[in-house]
Amino acid sequence: MLTIDQELRALLPPLQEAARQLLEDSVLSEGCRAPLVIWRGRNFLVDGHNRYEICQEHGLPYDIIERDFADRYAVIEWMCFNQLGRRNLTDAARADLRGKRYNNEKQRVGRPSKITHNESIAEPTYDRIAVVEKVSRATIHRDAMFSEALDVLENIGVERRQLTSGKRKVKQWPPNQPRSFEKLKDQPGWLKGGQLRDYQMEGIN
């Protein structure tokens, strides 16, 4: 049996019900055609969580491919990049993945654990991710803060996947939680006053 790391699992935007049903129908009729990807030596599943769940539910066989990763940061980078290739992501899920990718890379190279968003940074990571994802540098900046805001909510028991899928909306910043985001001069409007912008929560495409 493969190991499911819940932090890594949380990186994956949930499939919509219709897409999940189509995938299950495909696996039941044709088998699990694409191998599941695991972290060599750790047995952690890094790609194929939905297919794995379906195979487990129905007792179906599956193949695996082992990949080498230098560390956990490399796993998160690969997973974010891989997921961003999906075409059925909500806007909120895509923003969270871009922000998580930036925050992960920033921590990996030994930067401070929290972003000082209003500092002036010669930021190759911002620029590089922006080019790859075909968005502006400012968008990556906002996405990084958005992802951090979701981290705060997740830490107090709000399921991240419900927020990025639009199944749950947060209108008011939770009480007794740090409001450091409000102090930023260049913060996006959807964080002012503890408010999260609706389209970020609902994922309107």
Give an overview in words.
With 205 residues, the chain is mainly alpha-helical. It is built from 9 helices and 3 strands; from the N terminus they run ααββαβαααααα. The protein has a 3-stranded mixed sheet with strand order 2-1-3. Strand 1 and strand 2 form a beta hairpin. Helix 4 runs antiparallel to helix 5 and helix 6 crosses helix 7. The protein is globular. The protein starts with 5 loop residues before the first helix and ends with a helix. The C terminus is likely disordered.
Strand order of the largest sheet: 2-1-3
Poorly predicted runs are: 112-122, 180-205
Instruction: State which percent range the strand residues make up.
Output: 5-15%
Overall morphology: globular
Structural class: mainly alpha
Largest sheet: 3 strands, mixed
Q: Report the strand count.
A: 3
Tell me the helix content.
40-55%
C-alpha Rg (nearest Å): 18 Å
Compute the average pLDDT.
Answer: 77
